[in-house]
Give the backbone structure.
Amino acid sequence: MNFEELIDKVKNIPYGRNANRYDFTLVLSENKGTCSSKHAFLKDFADKNEIKNVKLYIGIFKMNEVNTPKLGDLLSKNNINYIPEAHCYLKINQIPVDATTSDSFYDKIKHDILEEIEIIPNQVSDFKVAYHKAFLKKWIEETNQNNTFEEIWKIREQCISKLSE
């Protein structure tokens, strides 16, 4: 199986959190994965097979009703236009590649990306969460949100659960 075929295979694996967020190989054995585990798995594969120009990114985007229609009710019920959400994806020769699902989520959020950073595969777990939380805390302060960090994080978790349904 070449790298492009592996990307296609991963795109068609169902979305879901793995039993151990530190073990990307579970994407294949459990036949599910998130944006983090799927892209960390692919970047790790690329590195081990000396496939050049494959980079792993975290993008913080405005998760809203337009780019994530399933969340409209939940966000409006909480009087929130958007929540900054972390999404992982690859760039191969600077071209974004999103293997989260069979249709690229990146295409739906590319105009809503607030910030992106390049990371290495083992940063998709603890580092990604810490980076995301720090971004959220800064955003809450800068935009004078009516909710605390804990409230926003709880709403965000409800959003993620709704997307996993």
Strands lie at 54-64, 82-92, 95-97, 113-119. The chain has seven helices and four strands. The longest helix spans residues 126-142.
